[in-house]
Design a protein that fits this description.
- This protein has 184 residues and is an all-alpha fold.
- The chain is 84% helix and 0% strand.
- It contains 5 helices and no strands.
- Helix 1 runs antiparallel to helix 2.
- The two termini are 55 Å apart.
Length: 184
């Protein structure tokens, strides 16, 4: 708009001095058309600029939301890992220890051959229970993950699974083996 108005200011003296009659009217019409065209272009540019600013603002808000979501997901994962760690430790430290104490107490029981067979059945059931809880604790949160890192923990899990199932497996790692901290 300022450019169109500047054209009018600069052109008016020339129209008055150099043009007369119908020629003057033609030049004034052209000038009016130029001002109208500049106004239309100015409105379109303002509309585009406003749309660009709105899009940039929306992109900024979206980036903030994504950052917040990423932070929230990180917190949720950290809380989940901490709960798994706590459950694993609690099961191992309390439940397995109590079962080991019961198993040890059964081993000291003596009696007739019939009673001894029953004690051995209970002893075997306790051992299976202990092994199952230990396996569950390792699956829930392997301590090797905290002690040695992700890749050695995966190697260990593959070996352990292969030993249980008889399936031959191998882990192939590409790239650097980074040690992750608990904050990551």
């Amino acid at each position: 708009m300022p450019t169109g108005l500047w054209c009018v200011i600069l052109t008016l003296p020339n129209i008055v001095i150099l043009h007369s009659g119908a020629e003057r009217i033609g030049v004034l019409v052209q000038l009016a058309f130029l001002v109208l065209l500049s106004a239309m272009v100015a409105l379109r540019v303002d509309k585009e600029r406003g749309a660009k600013l709105a899009a940039e603002d929306a992109n900024r808000r979206l980036a903030d939301i994504q950052k917040s979501l990423k932070s929230f997901i990180g917190l949720a994962l950290r809380a989940q890992e901490e709960e798994r760690f706590r459950l694993s430790r609690e099961l191992h430290d309390e439940t397995v220890q109590e079962l080991v104490v019961a198993k040890t107490a059964l081993e000291d029981v003596s009696g007739s051959p019939g009673q001894r067979d029953r004690v051995e059945l209970v002893d075997a059931a306790l051992q299976r229970c202990i092994d199952g809880i230990r396996r569950f604790c390792r699956a829930l949160r392997p301590s090797v993950l905290d002690d040695l890192g992700l890749v050695p923990a995966l190697d260990w899990l593959i070996l352990e699974l292969g030993g249980r199932t008889g399936i031959q497996m191998a882990l192939e790692v590409r790239g650097d083996r980074l040690q992750l901290t608990t904050a990551q």
